[in-house]
Amino acid sequence: MPDVRAAQRPAATTATTGMFGLEPPGRPAPPWTTREWFGPEGAVQLADLRGKVVVLHAFQMLCPACVHHGLPQAQRIHAAFEAADVAVIGLHTVFEHHAAMTPVSLQAFLREFRIAFPVGVDAPGADARNPIPVTMQAYGMQGTPSLVLIDRRGHLRLHAFGAAEDLVVGAAIASLLAEGG
Amino acid sequence: MPDVRAAQRPAATTATTGMFGLEPPGRPAPPWTTREWFGPEGAVQLADLRGKVVVLHAFQMLCPACVHHGLPQAQRIHAAFEAADVAVIGLHTVFEHHAAMTPVSLQAFLREFRIAFPVGVDAPGADARNPIPVTMQAYGMQGTPSLVLIDRRGHLRLHAFGAAEDLVVGAAIASLLAEGG
Amino acid sequence: MPDVRAAQRPAATTATTGMFGLEPPGRPAPPWTTREWFGPEGAVQLADLRGKVVVLHAFQMLCPACVHHGLPQAQRIHAAFEAADVAVIGLHTVFEHHAAMTPVSLQAFLREFRIAFPVGVDAPGADARNPIPVTMQAYGMQGTPSLVLIDRRGHLRLHAFGAAEDLVVGAAIASLLAEGG
Amino acid sequence: MPDVRAAQRPAATTATTGMFGLEPPGRPAPPWTTREWFGPEGAVQLADLRGKVVVLHAFQMLCPACVHHGLPQAQRIHAAFEAADVAVIGLHTVFEHHAAMTPVSLQAFLREFRIAFPVGVDAPGADARNPIPVTMQAYGMQGTPSLVLIDRRGHLRLHAFGAAEDLVVGAAIASLLAEGG
Predict the structure, then answer these.
(1) Chain-chain contact of C109 with B62 (C-beta, under 8 angstroms)
(2) Which of B99, C171, D5, D137 could form a Cys-Cys staple with D170, CB 3.0–4.6 A?
(3) Contact partners, residue A96, CB within 8 Å, separation at least 6
(4) Mean pLDDT of all residues belonging to chain A
(5) What is the Cα–Cα distance from A71 to A77, expressed in whole angstroms?
(6) What residues in A contact B81, CB-CB < 8 Å?
(7) Residues of chain B contacting C62 with CB distance shorter than 8 Å
(8) Which SS3 state, helix, strand or coil, does residue A9 take?
(9) What are phi and psi for residue B88, nearest 5 degrees?
(10) What's the whole-model pTM score?
């Protein structure tokens, strides 16, 4: 899929292993550093979601693979799983065309595309020469769309760049749900 | 989906409850009564699959919803899950146009559509006035396509008639895998 | 598209040139040699359709590319153009799995897949060693699905094997309509 | 399709009649009033395209039906027809979320979605209370996406709001091509 937006080389830390690509627990997911949130809940912190499986969907509003594949999948996940069990969170990780994808544009995008889950805007880094925002850096994401699964205890368990199959994503989420808290 | 082929009224016994439509264990899946099998393994009995999660996909080769939706989904399940954990089994449950869907035609169909999992031919019933074959009757299936999930201990856990979402099917299978034997 | 069913090597006579793949007029389309017809009109001869643009869709009921692409396209053509201007005709050109695709099976297939245009069964050849039926031979078709366009005067103008884009097929048909009789 | 963006009530002047929705000639297409152009050709005037069939695709970059249906169709038209015969032109007709769809955002959108045909930005009207831009008003467009076909002599011949079938659009373009200049 040529539309996938590559930001950087794969980081050694994102290797995934095991059933449905799940990593064993052991690596706490970094907190999110955001500058703004959209959605009725307002700001959402990872720590607030302890006890739920968290589906973190990193996207850019002008990334074709995000618009055609990643975001529709995130919307299906949001509709298919109970909110009490699974939290779907969008993260706008702009690393190119910054002037074109401001929060003003994102807000209209979210409304027109009817994104119903909370979306945070990843914070720009301190080093102006590095276009990659803070949370994207902290997670070692390679580009957009990226799908991250975090277990009920806050551990990072799956990190996929590009398209992921619904069957496998559904199975991975259910596996984490079955682990219990 | 108008192409779904309805065979009979819903049976009271097919009610599904719980996460992803899963029923609680307690109802052993009936054995399969077949007249022929296609696939390298030859005949497959449900009892042989104890310890695996079984995905039973009931179809007719001339049912459009089976060809366009159900069978491609069964093929995706077969590709996505490990054969050591999940057994995908096709069941040709002909209840109409019997002369048009003989085993000779089915064999060519399976070859041309590259169905890679074992397929059994459901046995005609003893009463010639009842077009519904034996296994289809035993499971109380309402038509084709029907998707049945059987847990590692041989209990019937999900029974869906018509289209089912990949995300939910993947989650249901993974839930049964997580139960262990 | 690996599902396309190749019957034989390309014949030199099927080269297409010009806008939308249209050949210049000059080559009368061979008559059809059939053994049976399905549809309310009964038997249809090419000569009866003089004055209309004829869309001849050659298929096999167990050819995946026909079921997934070719026949749905033929149904869209049948729905989009006026019957007074454009005649859509199916031709069942079985060249493999003959016992699996008998007229009995075809009849059920046409009913279940709701094919609303007339379908003729191409006649087996005199030479039992050659599996390719008579009309398929006469047109030099390379396999299924094949799309043939015949102009208002009965000349063969386009011959495409495999998938053809709706935009281009629509444009080719309209070009032939614009030629007048 | 709920994503189609309605701007105003249907105008009486957009009624279409005849084959493939084509109107008879007689109504010159209004010139375009734009504030900026993207694409290697720079600014494009309708008068410059006399002799070609013009496909004018009006869209907004944050309109889901434009992104999922209209623009991909315009790209297919651009690829399927010869540039010497058919000119595909995009028109960014922003009538809502103006601050979110500035030319800066549009430029990044066109690049990321690989829009290969020229795109003009419709000019804002003189009356600041009316959000509908000048060319959109002049054509009486009801919303986005809108597809407009203009014949070789510059007459408006088709005006469709919302989704249009590829088969029918291809046929309409070919009909106009066949008219000659």
Answers:
(1) yes
(2) C171
(3) A5, A7, A60, A131
(4) 91
(5) 10
(6) 171
(7) 105, 108-109, 112-113
(8) coil
(9) -100, 125
(10) 0.91
Q: Is the peptide bond before C133 cis (omega within 30 degrees of 0)?
A: no
Q: C96 to chain D nearest CA, in Å?
A: 31
CB distance A101–D108 less than 8 Å? yes
Contacts of D173 in chain C (CB under 8 A): 171, 174
Chains meeting A at 3+ CB pairs closer than 8 A? B, D
Candidate from C80, C168, C173 with C-beta closest to D80: C168
pLDDT in tens, B59-110: 999 999 999 999 999 999 999 999 999 999 999 999 999 999 999 999 999 9
Q: Hey, are the CB atoms on D112 and A62 less than 8 Å from each other?
A: yes
CB atoms D68 and A68 under 8 Å: yes
- Residues D152/D48, Cβ–Cβ less than 8 Å: no
How many other CB atoms are there within 10 angstroms of residue A145's CB atom? Answer: 29
Q: Do you know the residue count of chain B?
A: 181
The H or E element that residue C121 is part of is strand C119-122
Structure-block tokens of residue C136: 């398929």
Record: contact D171-C171, CB cut-off 8 A? yes
Residue A11 has φ and ψ, to the nearest 5°, of -90, 145
ipTM: 0.90
Please list every residue in chain A whose beta carbon sits closer than 8 Å to the beta carbon of residue B170.
166-171, 174
Q: How far apart are alpha carbons D175 and A83 in whole angstroms?
A: 53
Element containing residue A178 per DSSP (H, E): helix A166-179
Contacts of A169 in chain B (CB under 8 A): 167, 170
Neighbours of A44 (CB within 10 A): 19
Cross-strand bridge partners of residue D36 = D121
Secondary structure of chain B in HEC code, one letter for each residue: CCCCEECCCCCHHHCCCCHHHCCCCCCECCCCCEEEEECCCCCCCHHHHCCCEEEEEEECCCCHHHHHHHHHHHHHHHHHCCCCCEEEEEEECCCCCHHHCCHHHHHHHHHHCCCCCCEEEECCCCCCCCCCCHHHHHHCCCEECEEEEECCCCEEEEEEECCCCHHHHHHHHHHHHHHCC
